[in-house]
Amino acid sequence: MNFKKIAGIEAAKYVKDGMIVGLGTGSTAKYMVDEIGRRVKEEGLTITGVTTSNETERQAKSLNIPLKSIDEVPYVDLTIDGADEISADFQGIKGGGAALLFEKIVATYSKKCIWIVDDSKMVEKLGKFPLPIEVIPYGSQQLMHLFEEKGYQPTLRLDDEGKTLITDGGHNIIDLHLNEIDNPVEFGHYLDQLVGVVEHGLFLNTVSLVIVGNQDGPQTIK
Ligand code: 5RP
């Protein structure tokens, strides 16, 4: 059984005619986008999608899902996206797929957000998954030094060819190996005020619903 697929297909049921839908990024979100594409084709579902990455845009276009950019819509009704870790109190780490900036922008202007994950992503406390920080290339080595001094064990993310990864927004990603984040809100505020940091992968108080795929099927947690 593919737990990511189970969650993705279940989440697509929340999409209704006329909605403006934020389409997340990653291997779980891919199943949700496929299912929305199927509904558009086979059921005549009429939605407008707002994509969160170039990758999802390519997929949505190939499925003939009508799209608009985030700046062409007044708001987004519902965004469905994956996550890398979700804590017991529904805080999350995102950005494993390097799309955290656009994902956070779309989530911010969404009336409702749903995360879709397999059960391995549910944790007690955030931090085992390296926390992605999107940074401006200029001065990024200074941020690397700063994070090293703080003991955050930073690594500059590389692409598949071993070159410094460039995000869709033209930035780099530094992953922080923290192991545990005691106070995600406080740590998020610290990161927010660092010059050169564009955005971080702590998604706090973002979702009201999580759909977890596991061996018993989709579990919806509120
Ligand atoms: C991309 C993300 C993804 O949603 C997250 O990494 C989960 O991906 P996957 O569903 O492939 O495990 O935040 O930036």
Automatic annotation (TrEMBL):
Q: Which UniProt keywords apply?
A: Isomerase
GO BP term (any one): pentose-phosphate shunt, non-oxidative branch
UniProt binding sites for substrate: T25, G26, S27, T28, D81, G82, A83, D84, K94, G95, G96, G97, K121
**According to its UniProt record, which residues of this chain constitute the active site?**
E103
Does Transferase show up as a keyword for this record? no
Recall the GO molecular function terms of this protein's record: ribose-5-phosphate isomerase activity
Q: Which CDD domains match?
A: RPI_A
Instruction: Name the catalysed reactions.
Output: aldehydo-D-ribose 5-phosphate = D-ribulose 5-phosphate
Q: SUPFAM superfamilies from the xrefs?
A: D-ribose-5-phosphate isomerase (RpiA), lid domain (SSF75445), NagB/RpiA/CoA transferase-like (SSF100950)
Pathway listed for it is:
Carbohydrate degradation; pentose phosphate pathway; D-ribose 5-phosphate from D-ribulose 5-phosphate (non-oxidative stage): step 1/1
Provide one Gene Ontology cellular component.
Answer: cytosol
Whether Isomerase counts among this entry's keywords is: yes
The EC code for this enzyme is 5.3.1.6
What is the top-level taxon of the source organism? Bacteria
Main EC class the enzyme belongs to:
isomerase
The record's function comment reads: Catalyzes the reversible conversion of ribose-5-phosphate to ribulose 5-phosphate.
Subunit structure comment from the entry: Homodimer.
Family, as annotated: Belongs to the ribose 5-phosphate isomerase family.
What is the name of this protein? Answer: Ribose-5-phosphate isomerase A
